[in-house]
Amino acid sequence: MRDPLSRKVLHALNTDAQLSAKEVAQRLRVRPYRVSYAERMLRERYGLVSIPFINYGRLGIVSYLIFFSLRSGERRSAVLEAILAHPRVGWLGELAGCFEFGCAFLATDVRQVGDFFESICNRCGEVFTNRQIVPRLTFEWFGRRYLAPSAKQSRSLKYTSRDEAVSLDKLDIAILAAVGSTGVDSVKDVAQRVGVPYPTAVRRVRALEGLGVIEGYFASVNPEVLNREAYRILVQTGTSSRKAANAIRSIAEGDPRATFYVECLGPWEFELGWELESARELTEITGMISASLARHGVQMQVLNELCDLRWTFFPSPEIAALPRFPSFA
Question: What residues does 64 pair with on adjacent strands?
Answer without folding.
Answer: 105, 135
